[in-house]
Specification:
By secondary structure, this protein is an all-alpha fold. The chain is about 60% helix and about 0% strand. Helix 1 packs antiparallel against helix 2.
């Protein structure tokens, strides 16, 4: 996503959706509490969160590179200023 010119727009969209969700959850929970009680309100909001998590888990593509595909995977590559390269081992 970085480098495409859309990072700030997508970050703003995610923040907007989170704000709307936070605002609506109080309103919806309040209406459910009045009609059916606290237990039903909690379970309803928990179900909405579970659906959102499942959607995120199965719909969002993996964006990272597998560690095994990266050159030198598993070996930390630390370059210190002024350090000489290590000699190749036989």
């Amino acid at each position: 996503m970085r480098g495409t010119g859309r990072y700030n727009v997508s970050l703003g969209a995610v923040a907007t959706v989170q704000g709307i969700g936070a605002s609506l959850s109080n309103t919806v929970a309040g209406m459910i509490v009045v009609q059916a009680g606290y237990n039903v309100a909690f379970l309803t909001l928990a179900a909405v969160a579970a659906v959102a998590f499942a959607t995120f888990l199965f719909v969002m593509p993996e964006t990272g590179t597998p560690r095994s595909a990266e050159p030198g995977a598993g070996t930390p590559q630390v370059k210190l200023p002024g350090a000489r390269p290590a000699a190749a081992s036989p």
